[in-house]
Amino acid sequence: MDQAEFVHLVRLSEQASADDSRRYRRGVAAFAALGYAWVVGCLVLATGLVAWVVPQLLHGRFRGWMLWLLLAALGLLWASLRALWVRLDAPEGLVITAREAPALFDALERIRNKVHGPPLHAVYLDEEFNASIRQTPRWGLLGGATNTLTLGLPLLMALDRPRLLAVLTHEYGHLRGDHGRFAAWIYRTRLSWTRLHDALSRDENVMSFATQAFMNWYLPRFAAKTFALARQDEYEADRIAGRLVGAEVATAALVEIEVKGAWLQQKFWGDHWRTAATAALPVGPFQALRAQLLLAPEAAFAREALRQALARVSDVADTHPGLRDRAAALGGQAVLPEWSRRSALALLGDEAPRWIAHFDKQWCRDNASGWKRHHAWLGRVSERVQGLAASSATHSADQWVEQATLLRQLNPHADLRSLYEMALQRSAEHPAALQGWVQTLADDDRVARLQGLQRLWDASGEHRWWAASQAVEELETTRPGLAHDAAALKLWRERRKQAQEGEARAWEELRQLPYFGQVTRHDLSDFELGEVQAELALCKPVVRGWLVRKALREFPRRRAYLAFVELPRMSDEDRFELCRWLERTLSLPGQVLVLWAGESPTLDEIRRGAFEPVYPQVGAQSN
């Protein structure tokens, strides 16, 4: 099923649910029953075949085709039993008990009584900024379920008690009453089918292939038909939270989670990893988080994070609705709230410090090797910055920009405007210098930002998408004392659309066959090449790598690259995923397409067209 067909089926399910909710649910139940009927039917057929063939063999009426029939029946029987008994992994985290955290369990029991939910079989504490309740099949698809709550330690640190209770009530709301049990059963069924599909995809016998074919047809349609049910369930869980703790508290919790979640991803973790510049051994983050998550986010950051959250639309990529739709359904207003002043850590009682220390130690163990590599990388960056600073009197514009870029890696809060201005003195319309200079301007200096973005638009076709995107974002942001400029916003939106079309053409050029047309040797400096080689060395499956620069007709001055890697002893599916990961992580000064040596291009074609390898793994043997 392609994406368009999936979206079409989702829209049909939403329409059916809106027209007649009960009829829609009956249809979902019937389609779920079809999956069970397939499995049970296969089980009955396989059992019948085995029961018929075995006596024939025992009584000497042997035929060659009977052996093949028996093997096929046993394969079908095994696949059917696996479907009925598929097991899911237990939640990750630390199990906590009522004796250790009595206040938390008292609160959960009060919530359970109010929503008429089933009991929880276990409560876990983990290190994620999240909370979730899930039902996992106890006996595969045959029935029974285990209810587990997983509560993230950072979430307890970020929210006060009323807002955390709103989150817990929402999660418990998924298990409420008959409708909740039906939605949970559908969720468990979908989870089981997905796990079965993943398991069967690795089997190669004939009867598993038959079940795979059915699952390939059935699973995406089951997901599409049940999408509206899952989306409804989210809204209903929100309404339950709103009734129990108040719509204002529930909405404030949603907004605070969005803003502080963005702060964690965009601010905290980057700053924490940058401490590796001076700390050779990893530092646990959770003790620091305990204090920082209760500080009010910087006002400009909070406004922008909320704006971006409200701009996200509810689409078929996630059954969770967007913040705007959730707040509207609750009847609340998605505005910046008064931030939580006291955390909900008190719900964990006297054990909270012990658990914080536990997760700090665990984080340090899990990230020891990554921290060591990051410490070494920041050391190389620092040495390069010192070398550039020592020769600044003769810097070109490119060197001033490089120095500023590397300093941002060490300290994103550093004042870099003077470095970009020095670069612009060397070359008044230097695109990278203009881009960096615009980023140093104050948020409320709209006039200067738009003027800088206009200069960048005029100076470089390669940077037009970035310039237009930044201008649209600026003009869409409401700032005190600045009037809305509809004409400018319309102009920049049209420019962004035009630039997006150019970016799409450039990407198609990069992927265009033959791969070795319009390529030259790479143009990386020694420092840039050293970073790429260090990153490839950390990727153990790569035994050799090649890198060439690709000339693009769409953007003649853009630095774009093709990287080729030799990945023996891996499946094509794993190779594909690894290449996509390398595209996201390699420190190259431009976009890159990563390909592996296989049917196209072959290893011989890479040897002929990609010049010498930039990375040979020590002791590697070519295949």
UniProtKB/TrEMBL annotation:
<dbReference type="GO" id="GO:0008237">
    <property type="term" value="F:metallopeptidase activity"/>
</dbReference>
<protein>
    <submittedName>
        <fullName>M48 family metalloprotease</fullName>
        <ecNumber>3.4.24.-</ecNumber>
    </submittedName>
</protein>
<dbReference type="InterPro" id="IPR050083">
    <property type="entry name" value="HtpX_protease"/>
</dbReference>
<keyword id="KW-0812">Transmembrane</keyword>
<keyword id="KW-1133">Transmembrane helix</keyword>
<feature type="transmembrane region" description="Helical">
    <location>
        <begin position="139"/>
        <end position="159"/>
    </location>
</feature>
<keyword id="KW-0482">Metalloprotease</keyword>
<keyword id="KW-0645">Protease</keyword>
<feature type="domain" description="Peptidase M48">
    <location>
        <begin position="155"/>
        <end position="331"/>
    </location>
</feature>
<dbReference type="InterPro" id="IPR001915">
    <property type="entry name" value="Peptidase_M48"/>
</dbReference>
<keyword id="KW-0472">Membrane</keyword>
<keyword id="KW-0862">Zinc</keyword>
<keyword id="KW-1003">Cell membrane</keyword>
<feature type="transmembrane region" description="Helical">
    <location>
        <begin position="65"/>
        <end position="85"/>
    </location>
</feature>
<feature type="transmembrane region" description="Helical">
    <location>
        <begin position="28"/>
        <end position="53"/>
    </location>
</feature>
<dbReference type="Pfam" id="PF01435">
    <property type="entry name" value="Peptidase_M48"/>
</dbReference>
<keyword id="KW-0378">Hydrolase</keyword>
<keyword id="KW-0479">Metal-binding</keyword>
